[in-house]
Amino acid sequence: MNEKPLIISIVADLMLSTQIDDAAHAADCEVAHPIDTAGFAAALHRHPRLIIIDAGLTNLPWIDWVQAAKDDPATDAVPIIAFGSHVDLALRDRALAAGVDRYLAQSNFFDGLPEFIAAAVREATNQPCNEPLPESVLRGFEEFNAGQYFEQHETLELAWRAEMRPIRDLYRGILQIGVACLQIERGNAAGALKMIDRATRWLQPFRPMCQSVDVDRLLADAEQLRNEINRLGLHHLSRFNRGLFPKVHLLDSDRRATNHQLTL
After folding, report:
1. pLDDT confidence of residue 255
2. How would CATH label the architecture of 135-244?
3. Which ranges in the chain are annotated with CATH 3.40.50.2300?
4. Distance between first and last Cα of the chain
5. pLDDT tens track for 153-176
6. Where in the chain is the domain with CATH 1.10.3450.10?
7. What is the pLDDT of residues 40-88, one digit of tens each?
8. Is CATH 3.30.70.20 the classification given to domain 6-125?
C-alpha cells in the first residue's frame, strides 16, 4: 500500500502547528516537522506533496531551505505556501523571491488550510495507476530493458513531456534510472548517483505498483546500483557488474509477474 502523502510543516508556534497537524491527519496525511537543515533535507528526500512555512520564523534558515527545494529539479514542483503578517510587505517579497509559491496572511491561510491539504492529497492520490501503459512508454521500457539507455531517454522524455498529469513522474523516474546506467557505462559515478537520487524521489509516490510497473522492485534495484557504486568507489566503475542493471518488470493486479516481454 502506498505511503501516506507527506506534508512538511515549518511552524514553531505550538497552537498553529497543532492546527496544521489536525487538518493533515483528518486528510490521512503524515506531517514532518524539521528543526534543522539535515532534517529538512531528509524530509524533502521523501517527496512531500506540500511545504508549509511560518514566514515569521527567525530561528530557522527557511529561506535557504526554500531555495534548495526550488533549485533541485526533483523537488522544484512541490508547492510551498508561507503565511505571515499581512502588513510586512518586505517579508512577503523575500519569501516570494526565494521561491515560495503562495504567501498569505495568517488568517487567510488557516481559513483555507483544509482545502490546501485536500489539494495536496488529490495530487498524491489522483494518479491513473489503473490505466494501461501508453504504447510510447512501453517502447521506452523495451529500450530500457535492452540496455539502450540513450534511446530510452529520448523515448520516455517525449512521453513525459506529453503527459500533463502527475503520472508523468513515473516515466521520468524510470528514464532517470536508465540515465544512471548510462552514466555508469561512461564512468561517471557522481552523475549516476545524482540520477538515482532524483529517480528515487520521483518514484516513491507510485509504490508499490503503478500502471503494472513493479515500482518497489525497481526502487530496490536502483538502491543496489547505489550500493555497488559506493562499494567500488567513484573511480572504479570499469569493474561494475552490468548484471546489476535494473529491468522494468510488469505485474498483474495480483502482483504476479506477467508473461509480457518486458519481464526478462
Report:
1. 44
2. Orthogonal Bundle (1.10)
3. 6-125
4. 25
5. 999 999 988 887 888 889 999 999
6. 135-244
7. 999 998 888 899 999 999 999 999 999 999 888 778 878 899 999 888 8
8. no
Contact 184, 194 (CB under 8 A): no
Residue count (the chain): 264
Closest to 178 (Cα-Cα) out of 136, 217, 230, 225: 225
SS3 73: coil
**3-state secondary structure string, 195-250?**
HHHHHHHHHHHHCCEECCEEHHHHHHHHHHHHHHHHHHCCCCHHHCCHHHCCCCCE
Cell of 192: 549516476
Residues contacting 230, CB < 8 A, separation 6+: none
In 3D space, the residue among 65, 50, 53, 44 whose CA is nearest the CA of residue 91 turns out to be 53
Once rounded to an integer, what is the mean pLDDT over residues 31-45? 94
